[in-house]
Amino acid sequence: MNLVGELHDLILSSTNTVVFTGAGVSTASGIRDFRGKNGIYNDTFQGYRVEELFGIDLFNADPTLFYTWAKDFVYDLDAFQPCTVHNVLARLERAGLIKAVITQNIDRLHTLAGSQRVLEVHGSPSNHHCRTCGASATYDTIAPIVQAGQVPRCACGGVFKPDIVFYGEALPEDIFSQAVTACQEADLMLVLGSSLTVYPAAALPEEAYRCGARIVIVNDSPTALDRRAILKLDDLTDTFTQLCDLLNGSIP
Ligand SMILES: [Zn+2]
Predict the structure, then answer these.
(1) Pairing mode, if any, of strands 123-130 and 136-138?
(2) In CATH, what number is assigned to the domain containing residue 62?
(3) pTM of the predicted structure, to 2 decimals
(4) Confidence label for 247 from pLDDT (cuts 50, 70 and 90)
(5) 60 CA to middle of ligand 1, Å?
(6) How remote is the CA of residue 128 from the centroid of ligand 1, in Å?
(7) 110-141 pLDDT, tens per residue?
(8) What are the residues whose beta carbon lies below 5 Å from ligand 1 (ion)?
């Protein structure tokens, strides 16, 4: 049996599979990753590294910079569709074969593909909160304002910030603790498209391993957990295209 066949059998024979995804699952949807060779973090914008634009202090000092840059990255998500990986994961969840998808991504593509239990440990632009009064506003309300070149402001005059975790901010406590519990209960952990370099999120698959889960890694570069994995594959699109074919014979 080839490696994808082994992956297929592992998924079918496990009772509590949890998935951890990073930017690599969305590159096939056309979304650039952050830290790869052509990653967004290699870009500069008005003299700042893009990484700096996600700093909470800079955002508080001048939200114009972030929103001017984010117009063509965070607020153009409607242009992107889920890819094979997102779709297969949603299908596996519907078949009862996946308990949760933990993602570092902020592109909402797992939800768009139909996954129900998505734990977005780095937050999401689906919602926004006013820095002054705490009022909330949805992506659909905010996106047209940002696309028109304006900083979205609350009725109180405060600035809206997306619920994306910026540098200098804590991870969302409730979501993160749900993710920890999911990892502790998992008997199979699929790590997809993440090089596991960004902590504390990268500690989640380690926690799953520590608690006895078998680890499968599909990523095109090495990760720190590779030597703990019972299966390591490189090409996400190939793997999930083959997996999709195999599933046609085994689940509805
Ligand atoms: Zn307000």
Answers:
(1) antiparallel
(2) 3.30.1600.10
(3) 0.95
(4) very high
(5) 14
(6) 11
(7) 999 999 999 999 999 999 999 999 999 999 99
(8) 130, 132-133, 135, 154, 156, 158
Ligand 1 centroid vs 17 CA: distance in angstroms? 41
- What's the pLDDT score for residue 174? 96
User: For residues 214 and 137, what is the distance between their CA atoms, to the nearest angstrom?
Assistant: 40
CA 226 to chain centre: 20
When pLDDT is cut at 50, 70 and 90, the band that residue 50 belongs to is confident
Q: Please tell me the distance between residue 139's alpha carbon and the centre of ligand 1 in angstroms.
A: 16
- Total structural domains in the chain? 2
Per DSSP, the three-state class of 54 is coil
Longest dimension (CA), the chain: 62
pLDDT at 244 over 90: yes
Q: Which are the catalytic amino acids?
A: 122
Do 107 and 228 fall into the same domain?
yes
Both 113 and 221 in one domain: the answer is: yes
CA 240 / ligand 1 centre spacing (Å): 44
Residue 185: CB atoms within 10 A of its CB come to 16
Taking 90 as the threshold, does the pLDDT of residue 34 lie above it?
Answer: no
Contact 115, 86 (CB under 8 A): yes
